Structures are given as structure tokens and as C-alpha cells.
Amino acid sequence: MPIAKCPRCKKLFEKSGTTVCAKCLPDEDTDYDTVREYVGRHPDCSAHEVAEETGVDEDCVLRMIDEGRILNAASQEPVACGRCGQPAISVTKRLCQACLTELNTQILHEQSRIKLPPKETEADSFAPAASAQGSGAATPHSSGRVRDTIEKKRRV
């Protein structure tokens, strides 16, 4: 079973066909009934208006739209990008394509700036000490401790 984070309580749960955990499901169903009743009486309202008038969280209303549980609430008003105000690519993403591309580029740039030390392989740990001593660098291999340890183990 896939594990998901409940959008209501933010706890992890085993996702089995629902988008919220078992503890939050009754609240989600109650909110659905409230929203469905309001949208039935006011079919031309926006998701924001539904959330304001019913007291249901706007994210919950948008989640219901994404799931296809309610149809009319967001159809009249396009969602604007949260960064620049242009029309968003989806109700839940709330970003336009240009801003999404820009954010992805920034993330890739920041990831490329992160430098991890090279992974030391087993062959590197048993490298000859003479090459390190010749360069004048002080490394654990230059003292010969590794070689001494190996020799002690062979004698036993």
C-alpha cells in the first residue's frame, strides 16, 4: 500500500482509495455535504466564494474539485499564478508554466552548487603510501598505519 500525507492533519497514512486518513474522513465527508449543498444553491460561485461562505478550507474545496466530487465551484473563475498573477496551469498548483519552469531551473542550479566529497572506494583506502609520501602530504596512508594494521592481522 502506498503511504501518503493527510492534507487535513498532516500525518502519514496508508492510502487506500481516499485522499485523507481514516480519522479525518468523517470531517471530509461533512465538508463535502456542506459544499455540495452550497454549490447546488449557488452554481456560479468560485472556489474562494464557496470556502468563504461555507467555512470549509479553500484547499479542501480545491481538493474536491480535483477529485471530481464537485464540478461547478471553480469553472467560472480561472486560478491566478501565486507569483506573477498570470493564469495558473491547474487549480492546485497555482503557478503558470513560466514560473514553474523558472522554479525548476532555480532548483537545478542550487542542486548543482552542492558539492559532495568524492566517495572513497576500497581501492583508494589501500593505495600505496609512497605516492602520498612523495607529495609531502600528510594523510593517514603516509604514516603506514593501514599497512601495519594489515600486517598485524595477517600474523594472527
Task: Describe this entry's structure for a reader.
The chain is mainly alpha-helical and 156 residues long. Among the domains are: 55 residues; 36 residues, no CATH class. The chain has seven helices and two strands. It has a two-stranded antiparallel sheet with strand order 1-2. Helix 1 crosses helix 2. The radius of gyration is 29 Å and the shape is elongated. It starts with a strand and ends with a helix. 17% of the residues are buried.
Tags for this entry?
two-stranded antiparallel sheet; 156 residues; single chain; 7 helices; mainly alpha
As a percent range, the share of strand residues is: under 5%
End-to-end Cα distance, whole Å, is: 51 Å
From the alpha-carbon coordinates, what is the Rg to the nearest angstrom? 29 Å
Strand order of the largest sheet: 1-2
Largest sheet: 2 strands, antiparallel
Summarize model confidence as the mean pLDDT: 79
Q: What gross morphology would you assign?
A: elongated
Listing every helix as H and every strand as E from the N terminus to the C terminus, the arrangement reads EEHHHHHHH
